[in-house]
Design goal:
By secondary structure, the protein is mainly alpha-helical. Among the domains are: about 160 residues, Serine Threonine Protein Phosphatase 5, Tetratricopeptide repeat, CATH 1.25.40; about 80 residues, no CATH class. About 60% of the residues lie in helices and about 5% in strands. The protein has 29 helices and 3 strands. A 3-stranded antiparallel beta sheet has the order 1-2-3. Helix 13 runs antiparallel to helix 14. The longest helix has 26 residues. The chain is globular. The termini are far apart. InterPro entries: PPR-containing_protein (IPR050667), PPR_rpt (IPR002885), TPR-like_helical_dom_sf (IPR011990).
């Protein structure tokens, strides 16, 4: 026993020396070539059962906050992940399969849509119904479904198409579910619930409809009602099974309500025992949605404390989180540990390593990893090259980014919308317009997220005029702005002092049928003039610049000035 203890101590000293060497390299910001060699060396197992907790505790004291030791947790602001994630398919989301199930060439669709749009001028629903009767339109199930999808941004017309199909008995469960999804997207939850009750009365399955409501409540930042909907499944004779439980957790995490999802999972541990998949959903939320390393480490420790064994997905999430945080040391360390435990790294793991290597100015090593991917039998895809292009564009290294783009095309891979978005983030107005044109020629967007990205970029640069130019481009590309676009535009204009323009667009938003937004109304409230304050900010009001008393406020993380309340 003594000789085994002495051998373990000598082995442990070697580990400490290696850790000290790594820590010194990190502190001096040297290129971590020694760490990168972990990618190419063969895996081996530890000869002794040395406590990993002891090892990581020592490393943390020398270089970074402890990976396993308790620390204060904090919730970071939601940010868009630079890496493409692969969320689990959710049957409650029509964004995934709406285009595939809809037939844009449905016979009579164009005429039906034109007839429906003509009813907007009529004063009542009864008049609209009479107009449809006189039009001679005879709907089919496919026609009604395609019309609702085409009118998904105008829920009132979509509902009229649904009601018209109901009169002719041209409805299926898919039509009901799509209509409920459209209503949920526009937060018309009361109307959506009335349709669900009708489905139950007609003996149609309401399972998918209820899952849609859970997802839409989560998207509307109302986690409590999403949870109440889950509990209400019993009333519609639907068993809230494990699949529905995970869909709820995934929906909450997807829209930033990760704390609520974790709390709900722990509270219901007697009904739904804690398992790896549930923890992975929470871990994915902290790693890829919120990108909060501290919280991710805490959940990782919680898995161990609850005797839940991490799997390949768990390691993939953690490596992705460290990659986004720019932590090359821990990314490579977990990659090595993952292989030691017998898990085979997938393409997403290698993409994360490529991303963090590029961020740490190790472009040559990142390109070597692509060769490593091919050696393992995997095939690099567009997301692999995007993992290099994104950080290069963020660092304004557009020449290197274009070279990587050329390599991607030579490999027979097509640029994705993420590739175009990366370049748009670092371009001026002319370059942005050119990239939008290329996207359309390649039949790769632009989509609604493209314009949100462009609007936020120009407002961040303090260029509201260019943001308005981009707003006009939305109509050229036949994209209807939704509530998120209007919110970004109005908040950005107000933050830049263009209150008159912001009010005009808020009035336009309301005229298009979008619900009132109390936060926007508060932001656009008439400023109070006449009081004095130590700090003031210029505010554009028409053609005049006036100074008003103000206090600090925030719009999406950016400091702005708001009028003081009397």
């Amino acid at each position: 026993m003594l000789w085994q203890l002495g051998l373990k101590q000598r082995y442990f000293k070697k580990i400490l020396m290696a850790v000290a060497f790594f820590s010194l390299a990190v502190r001096r910001r040297a290129k971590p070539l020694l760490l990168v060699s972990l990618l190419f060396r063969p895996s081996f197992h530890q000869p002794f059962n040395i406590s990993l907790q002891t090892f990581y505790s020592f490393h943390s004291s020398a270089t970074s906050p402890s990976f396993f030791s308790p620390s204060q947790t904090h919730l970071q602001k939601y940010q868009i992940s630079p890496l493409e994630s692969s969320p689990n398919y959710d049957t409650s989301d029509f964004e995934v399969d709406g285009e595939e199930t809809c037939n844009p060439n449905e016979p009579g669709l164009d005429g039906f849509l034109e007839t429906l749009k003509q009813t907007k001028q009529l004063p009542s629903e009864g008049d609209a119904t009479a107009f449809l009767e006189e039009s001679g339109v005879r709907p089919t199930r496919g026609l009604v479904y395609s019309a609702i999808w085409a009118l998904r941004h105008e829920w009132e017309l979509a509902l009229l198409a649904f009601r018209w199909g109901e009169r002719w008995g041209c409805q299926s469960a898919d039509v009901w579910n799509l209509m409920i999804w459209v209503l949920g997207k526009h937060r018309s939850f009361r109307t959506a619930w009335s349709l669900i009750r009708d489905m139950h009365r007609f003996s149609l399955s309401t399972r998918r409809a209820l899952l849609i409501m859970i997802s839409r409540y989560a998207a509307a930042n109302n986690p409590s009602k999403a949870i109440r909907t889950f509990h209400a499944m019993d009333r519609f004779k639907i068993i809230p099974d494990t699949e529905a439980f995970f869909i709820l957790l995934r929906a909450l995490c997807k829209h930033g309500n990760i704390e609520e999802a974790e709390e709900f999972m722990l509270i219901n541990r007697k009904v739904f025992p804690l398992e790896t998949e549930g923890f992975n959903i929470i871990l994915n939320g902290w790693c890829n949605i919120s990108v909060d390393v501290v919280e991710a480490k805490r959940v990782w420790r919680g898995m161990s404390n609850n005797c839940v064994t991490p799997n390949a997905t768990s390691y993939t999430c953690m490596i992705s989180c460290f990659s986004k945080d720019g932590n090359l040391f821990d990314s490579l360390r977990l990659y090595d540990e993952m292989k030691k435990r017998g898990w085979i790294p997938g393409l997403e793991v290698y993409n994360s390593l490529i991303n963090v290597l590029t961020r740490e100015n190790c472009l040559k090593e990142a390109l070597h990893v692509i060769d490593k991917i091919k050696e393992t039998g995997l095939r690099p895809d567009s997301s692999t090259y995007n993992a290099i292009i994104l950080p290069l564009c963020e660092a304004h290294k557009l020449v290197e980014a274009r070279n990587v783009w050329a390599n991607m095309v030579r490999e027979g891979l097509k640029p994705t919308i993420t590739t175009y978005h990366a370049f748009i983030g670092g371009m001026n107005v002319e370059g942005t317009l050119e990239m939008l044109s290329q996207m359309r020629e390649a039949h790769c967007g632009p989509n609604s997220h493209t314009y949100l990205l462009v609007l936020n970029k120009f407002f961040k640069l303090g260029q509201p005029g260019n943001a308005l130019k981009m707003w006009l481009e939305i109509e050229k590309y036949e994209l209807l702005p939704d509530s998120a676009h209007y919110a970004a535009l109005i908040q950005g204009l107000a933050a830049c002092g263009w209150l008159m323009k912001a009010r005009e667009f808020y009035a336009e938003m309301r005229s298009r049928g979008f619900l009132d937004d109390p936060e926007l109304e508060k932001l656009l409230r008439e400023p109070l003039v006449g009081n004095k304050c130590h700090k003031g900010g210029p505010l554009q009001n028409g053609n005049e610049d006036i100074r008003i008393p103000c206090t600090k406020g925030h719009i999406r993380g950016r400091k702005v000035f708001r009028p003081m309340k009397r």
